[in-house]
Write a structure and sequence with these properties.
By secondary structure, this protein is an alpha/beta fold. The chain has eleven helices and 15 strands.
């Protein structure tokens, strides 16, 4: 009787552990090493797998199709880089406002999803070389008659939480924050949610990456009802984010990106998603 009870308790404990891991969405065991001296490359080069964190609603950089498949510019680019090393890339959707936390905790190995390089982020993580230039635009409905940031006075603005645009609003309040209603934007988990509110006139302006705005609006049936207003916020560079001190991984990614720029593969990816080489510093440097 006692043996049976012990066996039952053991089985129950194992089931609880399995259910707990499944319920928590555990997909990956942290392998970051120390915060001061991580060596992600050593591990991923042996395991032949690396985990990229992304906002899976950020078109066209990385997003889910209706069938649930994750596709996008950064998806193709990451795969092309790590194909050179025989490493498979796993894409892990994350809460974008927690991207740096997820990286530092070891839940993911990289942030690769239209990730703007800026001083605030550079204090916490290491970036690859920049591979794409972006800027912020204000998207509005034409029936709101907003033609400049000055027209947002007393209006409601939206932005994605944790985005470069959100940081710009806080860092340079005179450009937009001081003008809008309540002097605070509405924060959204995803740009998809923000566009829903923009269409419903719950917000009158949405500060967003021009790359996202251009692709999203181009694929909307009511594209002509929107307008994109250039901003005075500084241009941004997209880079791959990794843990501080991950010097070998950075070198491998930088080398892989530059090889793609020289052998024409980056041009092919640019043409597939943008129809142009856009502002691609790697290709400019390769010429």
């Amino acid at each position: 009787m006692l043996k049976s009870l012990k066996r039952l308790l053991l089985i129950t404990s194992l089931l609880l552990v399995t259910i707990g891991l499944s319920g928590c969405g555990v997909r990956y065991v942290s392998r970051q090493g120390s915060q001061e001296n991580p060596d992600t490359w050593s591990t991923v080069s042996k395991q032949k797998r690396i985990v990229v964190g992304l906002d899976d609603s950020f078109v066209p950089m990385g997003f889910q199709t209706k069938s649930g498949k994750i596709v996008g510019y950064d998806v193709d680019l990451a795969r092309a880089v790590f194909k050179q090393y025989g490493i498979k890339v796993d894409f892990q959707p994350i809460d974008w406002s927690m991207n740096v936390t997820e990286l530092r905790n070891g839940t993911i190995d990289l942030i690769w999803n239209g990730f703007s390089i800026n001083p605030q982020r550079a204090k916490k993580i290491t970036f690859s070389e920049p591979y794409l230039i972006n800027d912020q635009v204000l998207v509005s409905k034409k029936n709101q008659h907003i033609n400049s940031f000055a027209d947002m006075k007393g209006k409601v603005a939206g932005v994605q939480s944790g985005s470069a645009g959100a940081m710009d609003i806080d860092n340079q309040p005179k450009l937009l924050k001081d003008k809008i209603k309540g002097h605070e934007p509405i924060l959204y988990d995803t740009f998809t949610d923000a566009f829903i509110d923009l269409n419903a006139n719950r917000i009158q302006g949405l500060l967003i990456d021009s790359i996202y705005a251009g692709y999203y609006l181009e694929h909307q049936p009511n594209q002509s009802s929107f307008k994109s207003i250039p901003s005075e916020f500084p241009k941004e560079e997209y880079g791959v984010g990794m843990r501080k001190g991950d010097t070998v991984l950075k070198r491998k990614i930088d080398q892989g990106l530059n090889r793609l720029a020289k052998n024409g593969e980056l041009h092919k990816i640019n043409m597939k998603w943008f129809g142009t080489d856009r502002d691609s510093p790697l290709i400019k440097n390769a010429k």
